Amino acid sequence: MAKLIGFMIIASFVLLVLNLTGFCYREVRYLSNQELFESAIAHEAYRIGDYLPTDTPKSYLANHPNCCSIPVFQPSNSSLNALLGNKIRYIRVLYRMLQTEVDKNPREQFYEAFVETTPCGRTFHAIGTSRDTPD
Predict the structure, then answer these.
(1) What is the pLDDT of residues 4-37, one digit of tens each?
(2) Cβ atoms of 117 and 21 closer than 8 Å
(3) Nearest to 111, CA basis, from 67, 74, 72, 73
(4) Pairing mode, strands 68-69 and 89-96
(5) What DSSP string describes 75-90?
(6) Residue 43 contacts by C-beta under 8 Å, 6 or more apart in sequence?
(7) 74 contact partners, CB below 8 Å, separation of at least 6
(8) According to DSSP H, which parts of the chain are helical?
């Protein structure tokens, strides 16, 4: 009985650590930054001004290697979300806005989006702001 309790405590600890570090249980691995970037690009694709109809998130990332990053600041996750493995993190995507948006305010041609993403790459929504320069 003591061995079973000890095993359950160790297993719970391992699951907690994996949940807090962004482990994707569905894939049974950590997703790479590139995979997370591609998910965020797919979420924002309809708003990206230079996203061509023939583009995929992978090809867009290849042509714009500096468009995405994982910012230092991250959303505060509730304890329940963290414990259940639903830890949300921001993926930053910087892109040129659609021409119709640029025409409304020509001084701000770029958009910096922070896409909320799960450890398995599922996206929810994005917050962000328009910018006048891409850096």
Answers:
(1) 676 566 655 666 666 667 888 888 899 999 999 9
(2) no
(3) 67
(4) antiparallel
(5) PPPPHHHHHTT---EE
(6) 115, 123, 126
(7) 89, 90
(8) 2-20, 33-44, 57-63, 79-83, 99-104
* C-alpha radius of gyration, the chain, whole number: 19
Per-residue pLDDT tens over the stretch 86-121: 778 999 999 999 999 999 989 999 999 999 999 999
User: Which one, of 90, 77, 69, 74, lies nearest residue 20 by Cα?
Assistant: 77
Among candidates 119, 123, 120, which has minimal Cα distance to 20?
119
- Listed as own residue / partner, the contacts of 124-133 with beta carbons closer than 8 Å and 24 or more positions apart are 124/88, 126/40, 126/43, 126/44, 126/93, 130/97, 130/101, 130/105, 131/94, 132/107, 132/108
Both structure tokens of 19: 């949940």
Write the DSSP symbol of residue 14.
H
Q: How far apart are CA 88 and CA 76, in angstroms?
A: 8
| pTM of the entire predicted model | 0.83
CA 102 to chain centre: 25
